[in-house]
Specification:
Helix content: 10-25%
Largest sheet: 7 strands, mixed
Radius of gyration: 21 Å
Distance between the termini: 51 Å
Number of strands: 12
Number of helices: 5
Strand content: 15-25%
Order of helices and strands: EEHEEHEEEEEHHEEEH
Low-confidence stretches: none
Structural class: alpha+beta
Shape: globular
Length: 235
């Protein structure tokens, strides 16, 4: 008998309006395939939580306890807006920058990782747990442009362009839902909203398209860091 195949990689040459030193190639795997493989992993079979709930410490329900994403208000509201019987799969994305080769071209890329908030918090922190899967390698090309600051702008635009390509299935599943199977073969009607984004400050500034000494989370500039009041969120 044939064994199940692993997750397939795809590649695409990204056409550029400005010249680069080498062709820009995006490598990625279908994020829905990555997400569907996590609930089917034997190690996570007893570590999954699909039930949004509210936890109170008193019978009068005066104080609510928030210990994980499924006990939060956002998960409760999202589940309330889903069709009856639908399953909420909160998606975690992580984006960074790393060297993928040394002394052989010094290749650099932005690895995009994906996971689920439905996996209990203690599990993803374990070494080699496999809770985060590599779903894409976003290219970092060397643009040929006489103005250095415009090279950085072009690189940032490329990241957004690649994310639009990779995350199309995930966005569609978040809006319309998708049928996925669990470990025992049962089909589930799932929705995949973005629950968390794990990024460093440089990647955060790229995603929200701000530059300089500016907060990627709020409307505060560097001169306002540390002031004793909350600034408006950057949306």
């Amino acid at each position: 008998e044939l064994l199940p195949s692993g997750l397939c990689w795809m590649s695409q040459v990204i056409p550029m309006t400005h010249p680069t030193k080498s062709p820009v190639i995006l490598y990625w795997r279908d994020p829905l395939d990555c997400l569907s493989s996590l609930p089917n992993h034997p190690l996570f079979h007893k570590e999954l939580d699909f039930t949004p709930r509210r936890v109170y410490i008193t019978v009068q329900q005066l104080y609510c306890v928030y210990s994980k994403w499924m006990t939060g208000d956002d998960a409760w509201k999202m589940q309330s807006n889903l069709p009856s019987g639908a399953t909420l799969l909160g998606t975690i994305l992580s984006l960074g920058k790393t060297n993928i080769s040394m002394m052989t071209g010094d290749r650099v890329a932005h690895p995009l990782l994906i996971s689920l908030v439905n996996i209990r918090m203690s599990t993803p922190l374990k070494t080699l747990s496999g809770a985060f899967l590599l779903t894409a390698l976003l290219p970092v090309p060397k643009f040929i442009h006489k103005k250095k600051h415009l090279r950085g702008v072009l690189e940032d635009c490329l990241i957004h362009q690649c994310l639009d390509i990779v995350l199309v299935p995930l966005k569609q599943a978040a809006r319309e839902g998708v049928m996925l199977s669990d470990l025992v073969g049962h089909s589930c009607y799932c929705f995949t909203p973005l629950a968390s984004y794990i990024i460093d400050t440089p990647e955060g500034m790229i995603l929200v398209t701000v530059g300089g000494k500016t907060s990627p989370v709020t409307m505060a500039s560097y001169k306002q860091f540390g002031v004793p009041f909350l600034h408006e969120p950057r949306t």
